[in-house]
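Data card: per-record layout.
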Amino acid sequence: MTTETITKLHESNRAAWNEGAIRYAEEVESDIHFLRDGGANFCPPEFPYLQDLEQWCGRAIHLQCAGGRDTLSLWNVGAKEVVGIDISDTMIECAQRKSEALQAPATWYRSDVLQTPIELDGTADLVYTGRGALIWIMYIDAWATVPARLLKPGGALYIFDGHPLTWVWDADADHYKLDARYGNYFSTTVEPEQGWSPNYIGDIGVPTEQQVVKYERQWNLGQIVSAVAAAGLRIERLEEHGETYWDQFPQMLPELVGRLPNTFSLLARKPEA
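The structure for this 273-residue chain is written out next.
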């Protein structure tokens, strides 16, 4: 895939997320209250990886930060300063409103993650990303070079994301059943979509057929780990979790959820100079 094609697909995703961000904009005030009360919007498996930030994290950079709730949660759990990068203009506006209301030490950049400003290179003690981030990236090897250049020597990359295996299952089934379209773990197809899952963003007030086309590309676990390693980061821990981060399988029998991995954690570190 050429650089021109990648940019074109990412820009379509930018327009789609500007549409979908209407739901995030509606939650700005509630997010401000949540964060002002000391809230930390993380899933249980994430907390062990985000311990004692006040002791070692001067700057945390959140790639694909959406509306900034998770970014500002990093501040609440100890990061002295946070930086958020997101491709959506509307998401960055939401994040800015929150940090201004909280008087938080936060800086926001509207940018394609692959074009993250070089002025941030070598400034992060922690690069954090996930929660459905990687499927929007069309070139995983290029993506992995971004946290590698942002981190200080000794700094950590922490990814908490949906496990690639969840891509293959029929989201409307009450048991694990291969999806007719997505049921290939090793697929390399870029999938165009219109509309949003009712359990994620849902109805945005625009007919589905009139919404901007967005593009997703699933990366399997081997591709993600290999890209991070090839970028020069040292893999320290890879963990698979049964916990979900959103209601992806609303019809699934409760006794089945968690028997297969739904999320994963990847911790990597930039070697000391």
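Known properties of this structure: The chain has eight helices and nine strands. The helical segments are 3-20, 22-26, 28-36, 53-56, 69-76, 89-102, 140-150, 221-230.

See the next section for split statistics.
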